[in-house]
Design brief:
This protein has 164 residues and is of the alpha+beta class. The chain has a single domain, classed as Nucleoside Triphosphate Pyrophosphohydrolase (Alpha-Beta Complex), CATH 3.90.79.10. Helices cover 13% and strands 30% of the residues. The strands form two sheets. Strands 1, 4, 5, 6 and 7 form a five-stranded mixed beta sheet that branches. It has a three-stranded antiparallel beta sheet with strand order 3-2-8, with no helix packed on it. The two termini are 30 Å apart. Bound molecules: 8-OXO-2'-deoxyguanosine-5'-triphosphate (8DG). 8-OXO-2'-deoxyguanosine-5'-triphosphate (8DG) binds next to strand 1, strand 4 and strand 7. Belongs to the Nudix hydrolase family. InterPro entries: MutT-like, Nudix_hydrolase, NUDIX_hydrolase-like_dom_sf, NUDIX_hydrolase_CS, NUDIX_hydrolase_dom. One of its GO terms (biological process) is DNA repair. It catalyses: 8-oxo-dGTP + H2O = 8-oxo-dGMP + diphosphate + H(+).
Length: 164
């Protein structure tokens, strides 16, 4: 398990990069990821829910916002509610988007992965590590960086905490 201060990993490619359009080959396949910054209270956040990954091995032990990949035919928000129910076992109420630097307000995680992140609070249930995680933990502003976040999450977490 990586410890705090460990160098966050660079995301492994799910499959080898394809040639670019300049090579007259197919474009790299974009991967749409959605994530949720679950806080204790959307109106006055004091705590953020983080989840520790168990897979793939290169990412195991690093912490992230619960979420996952959008499946074909799903809207981003449908994917978000499905992933949160599967992974954390709660129903959530969405708040505002956490605006990233890309034109569509997403955050670049790797050359192929982009994540859209919403603020949220729990509408029903107790968060648990059910699938793909082995621990969930509430972090305060003071403990936000006590866990090793995935590299792409660090600016997102900082943006969330900047509003507290
Ligand atoms: N869910 C999530 N994924 C993140 C975050 N930060 C980050 O770099 N990622 C990366 C890790 C993965 O390469 C990718 C999301 O894939 P995932 O494995 O969570 O997707 P999934 O739940 O749909 O799982 P699978 O069906 O692909 O196994 O985005 C984050 O905060 N949340």
């Amino acid at each position: 398990m990586p410890q705090t201060g460990a160098v966050p990993p660079t995301l492994p490619a799910d499959e080898p990069d394809q040639p670019t359009a300049d090579d007259d080959g197919p474009r790299p396949q974009a991967v749409d990821v959605v994530g949720v910054a679950i806080v204790d209270d959307l109106d006055a956040p004091q705590r953020l829910l983080a989840a520790r990954r168990t897979e793939p091995p290169a990412l195991a032990g690093f912490w992230e916002l619960p979420g996952g990949k959008v499946e074909p035919g799903e809207s981003w928000q449908e994917a978000l509610h499905r992933e949160i129910a599967e992974e954390i076992g709660v129903r959530i109420e969405l708040g505002p988007i956490v605006a990233g630097p890309l034109p569509d307000l997403r955050w670049q995680l790797s050359p192929r992965h982009r994540i859209a992140v919403w603020m949220a609070q729990i509408a029903d249930g107790e968060p648990q590590a059910l699938d793909e995680h082995d621990e969930v933990r509430w972090l305060t502003k003071g403990t936000l960086h006590d866990v090793p976040w995935l590299e792409g999450d660090v600016p997102i977490v900082d943006a969330i905490a900047a509003d507290w």
